[in-house]
Amino acid sequence: MATMRRETGIAGLDKLVMGGFPVPATVMIGGEPGTGKTTIAVQSLFYGAKKGEIGIYITGISEPRWVVQKFLSEFTFYDETVIEKENIVFKEIRSELFKEPEKIIYKIEELVEKYEPQRLVIDPITPIKLSLKKTGRIREFFHELFEFLKGFNCSTIVTAEMSYDEIPKSIEGYMVDGIIMLSYPIEKDVRRKFLEILKMRGTKHATGKHLLDITLEGVEVHAGLR
Ligand SMILES: Nc1ncnc2c1ncn2[C@@H]1O[C@H](COP(=O)(O)OP(=O)(O)OP(=O)(O)O)[C@@H](O)[C@H]1O
Ligand SMILES: [Mg+2]
Question: Is domain 24-191 classified as CATH 3.40.50.300?
């Protein structure tokens, strides 16, 4: 049976994964501050929304819509009309995060049942993980959430604030279907951005670090370039 795929719409990235992420799948995009996690995640929501798909963007910061607008409206992929038409829905889970982390799962499930999105972004999941630590139920939380989303054939991107050396100890890394790491090593006084696919269940994918560029058009991956 051929694998169903959903394009990310990120130039150069789909080629690295044989045309798109397998569906359904939860893919973690990890990386240090400013490596491009949010840009990739939101760009892919806009890509889907322009084709009529529904996308949900979930974050712990307040007024996510305005924050995204402030930082991402310069990009050519940004389109106010898809937000007005609610093809992309921005939701914050701030109060749950600080007061009742065990309720986050119900809130996300409620949103997914209401909007039936093809794409969902949780940006970032790191604070959710930290707040759940107290409850000792991180693994159960991610297991339930990822299984639930699979039932909706949803393409999920979760961003993770982490560097390469934290991957082996990250519970979520073992549970997601794919891991993409972004980095910006310094080489000969020049810092450049890179993208590397470490894991993608159910598909062949390119390996190694590929040059990543952020321009006004958004993120672009240059397959094979180093
Ligand atoms: N118009 C632009 N042209 C070139 N580079 C840009 C442009 N806009 C943003 N960037 C780059 O994108 C980076 C921000 O990317 P983004 O917010 O997606 O990172 P992030 O990984 O989500 O960071 P954080 O962990 O802090 O949330 C900026 O630091 C800058 O390097
Ligand atoms: Mg970000």
Answer: yes
Q: How far is the CA of 169 from the centre of ligand 1 (A)?
A: 26
Q: Which residues is 122 bridged to in the sheet?
A: 58, 158
Domain boundaries, the chain: 24-191
CA angle 25, 224, 10 (to 5 degrees): 40
pTM for the complete prediction?
Answer: 0.96
d(CA 55, CA 45): 6
Judged against a pLDDT cut of 90, whether residue 218 lies above it is answered with: yes
Long-range contacts of 62-69 (CB under 8 A, 24+ apart): 62/92, 62/94, 63/92, 64/90, 64/91, 64/92, 65/90, 68/38, 68/42
Q: Whose CA is nearest to atom 29 of ligand 1?
A: 34
Q: Is 103 left (phi over 0), alpha (psi -120 to 50) or beta?
A: alpha
Q: How far is the centre of ligand 1, averaged over its atoms, from the C-alpha of 34 (Å)?
A: 5
Each residue of 87-111: pLDDT tens digit? Answer: 999 999 999 999 999 899 999 999 9
